[in-house]
Design a protein that fits this description.
Distance between the termini: 34 Å
Number of helices: 12
Helix content: 25-40%
Structural class: alpha/beta
Mean pLDDT: 93
Largest sheet: 8 strands, mixed
Low-confidence stretches: none
Strand order of the largest sheet: 4-3-2-5-1-6-7-8
Strand content: 15-25%
Shape: globular
């Protein structure tokens, strides 16, 4: 269950803590060019000031453009089903900042978040004074430090960490991650990552560890070629969806029916991922392969844990069906490719029902790609905007 929205929480200490976190990005623009290369050393310096909490456990890094949050949720659920104490860091949140930091299936408590902010925020301000050449930590970097410190304090055995933007220069890359997962790569954040799929893939491939391994989801040819080149240079073994592992429909073709999962573990029958859609079955298979690869680093998972984890993963806002009249489906598709997957899933699950699309997007999103995809299934559309400061104007 999701907690109440942050705006509904009256606790003054919690509200002050959030204000401190968000103050680090107030009015700043995305770092580009040489500035971006300061992110990793800045994050390393901040964590050093906090005692290097990220050295206390290994991590699985999850990168990609679409599906990385779902893949992370599946992976964390598998590891929990295998009996490990797991930390999961994902972003952004839907209602509460606490959603970003899960420990062993439970949201970080408000009082714990307040205590952590009281440590991390002063350390970040002190870093800004001592090392002005590194620049000021961002809200994302402070939040990442909060999560990594929380995991160490709560003595997690392994962490599943979703990459923010890109990978090569992302704050999350400081963790010890012998295994990575890369969900599908498509166009997003082109102003920061580059204008082509190859540019974006090169940034995402920054999560590959030297001598490590990675599970790779379905990719465009240009992205696959770049991932392969970077992996070869780093001696990182790549396992590809539909080559070394995958899934297949059994009986019913509907994306809500059980399927068969195959890979190095053999065949697992009757697997029913908790998240709906063919793209989510892809994400589930990538998560299964990534956790299987962690077995080479002291965290083996068996077939039962894979099946149990995939069926119990919780990740709200991804084809989330709210029963009632009318039936409501909530989805956070935020680029053209994700909107196409949403439209395809709606067609498969509700082939004869009229669809009313209620749409709001951020000002930096591919509104042309999103609306083109959703217009194929919309009988009517209601265009609006959220209260977020970076919401796109409804008239646009």
């Amino acid at each position: 269950m999701l907690p109440p929205p942050d705006r509904a929480v009256a606790d003054p200490a919690y509200r002050r803590a959030l204000e401190q976190v968000f103050s680090f990005s107030a009015g700043r623009k995305p770092e580009t060019g040489p500035d971006r290369r300061r992110k990793i050393p800045r994050m390393q310096a901040l964590l050093a000031a906090l005692g290097n909490p990220h050295h206390a456990y290994p991590a699985l890094l999850v990168a990609g453009t679409k599906g990385k949050g779902s893949t992370a949720a599946f992976a964390a659920a598998i590891l929990r089903a295998a009996g490990y104490r797991v930390g999961r860091y994902c972003q952004p949140h839907l209602l509460s900042y606490r959603e970003r930091i899960w420990i062993d299936g439970t949201l970080l408590a408000m009082e714990d978040l307040v205590r952590l902010v009281d440590e991390v925020a002063p350390a970040a301000r002190a870093l800004e004074r001592r090392h002005p050449d590194l620049g000021t930590p961002t809200t994302f970097e402070v939040g990442t430090a909060l999560a990594l410190l929380a995991f160490a304090r709560q003595q997690v055995q392994v962490a599943v960490v979703e990459v923010g933007i890109g990978g090569a220069h992302d704050a999350t890359r400081v963790v010890d991650a012998p295994v990575a997962a890369v969900a599908p790569i498509s166009y997003d954040h082109v102003a920061v990552l580059g204008p082509t799929i190859g540019d974006i893939a090169r940034e995402k491939a920054g999560v590959f560890a030297e001598g490590g391994s990675a599970a790779i989801g379905r990719q465009l040819p240009e992205a696959a070629a770049v991932l392969t080149r970077v992996a070869e240079a780093r001696r990182c073994h790549l396992s590809w969806l539909d080559q070394e592992f995958g899934w297949e429909a059994v009986g019913s073709p509907l994306p809500t029916a059980p399927c068969r999962l195959w890979g190095p573990w053999g065949r697992i029958e009757g697997v029913q991922p908790s998240l709906v859609g063919r793209h989510q079955r892809d994400n589930a298979a990538v998560a299964a392969m990534a956790t299987h690869l962690l077995g080479q680093h002291g965290f083996p998972v068996d077939r039962d844990a894979i099946a149990a984890g995939l069926s119990t993963a919780v990740w709200p806002g991804r084809f989330q069906v709210v029963p009632g009249s009318p039936l409501l489906v909530l989805d956070g598709a935020h680029n053209g490719a994700s909107a196409e997957a949403l439209a395809a899933t709606l067609r498969e699950c509700f082939p004869r029902r009229p669809v009313v699309v209620v749409l709001a997007v951020g000002e930096d999103k591919d509104v042309d790609g999103i609306t083109a995809a959703l217009s194929t299934i919309a009988h009517r559309a209601v265009v609006t905007r959220t209260t977020h400061e970076r919401a796109m104007d409804a008239e646009r």
